[in-house]
Amino acid sequence: MSSFGRRLWGAATLHADTYEEVEADRGSIGQAALLVGIACAAAACGSLLRGSTTGLSSVALAVQVIVAGVLPALLWLGGSVFAYMVGATFLRGPETETDFPEVLRTTGFAFTPGLLLVAAGLPSASGLWIYYVTWLWIVVAGVVAIRQALDFTTLRALATFGSAAVLLWLVVWGLAVVPLPL
């Protein structure tokens, strides 16, 4: 198995050593970005498969596929920014030594389960079940990634993840309600 394949397996099975390896390897940012890109494509394909069986108009389907395809990348970048800001400042532990690229690399590999999002396009409830289980798996992997990148306890990593999620939600909500200049 290649180094990338081994890392995918380790990240998917939530092995802390894999996240530590990715954190230490400055060259793995390309692999993390590639992985998130593949998760974006998988989410878009799953959305297309699911949406094409629901009778959506072509415009609505196109919007749904674009949003689903962009969402993992936005969550990765935005979530990493807020996790770094919260974890490296407010919730910083005595052993926390990190920089933003370390958080970006580890959280990128937390999107490994996102490769299954293509299967969310299966018809019936099985596709929906796969969708929710996959996103839950990504969340758990994200907590492990933050814990390893910031050298935290699991409780502190949960607090950082939760805080980052709330901050990201507030930014998205704020952008959604602010009127656009004409």
Please provide a written account of the structure.
This protein has 182 residues and is mostly helical. The protein has one domain. The chain contains 7 helices and no strands. Helix 2 packs across helix 5 and helix 2 packs across helix 6. It is globular and about 55 Å long.
Structural topology:
Blueprint: H1 3-12, H2 16-24, H3 29-52, H4 58-90, H5 100-109, H6 125-149, H7 154-177
Helix pairs in contact: 2-5, 2-6, 3-4, 3-5, 4-5, 4-7, 5-6, 6-7
Number of H- or I-type helical stretches:
7
The fraction of residues assigned to DSSP E strands is under 5%
Q: Could you list the spans in which at least 5 consecutive residues all have pLDDT below 50? A: none
How many domain regions? 1
> Could you tell me the number of beta strands?
0
Order of helices and strands: HHHHHHH
Shape: globular
Averaged pLDDT: 94
Task: Give the helix proportion (percent range).
Answer: over 70%
Give me the Rg, rounded.
17 Å
Q: Based on helices, strands and strand pairing, what is the structural class? A: mainly alpha
Question: In angstroms, what separates the terminal alpha carbons?
Answer: 55 Å
Q: Tell me about the biggest sheet?
A: none
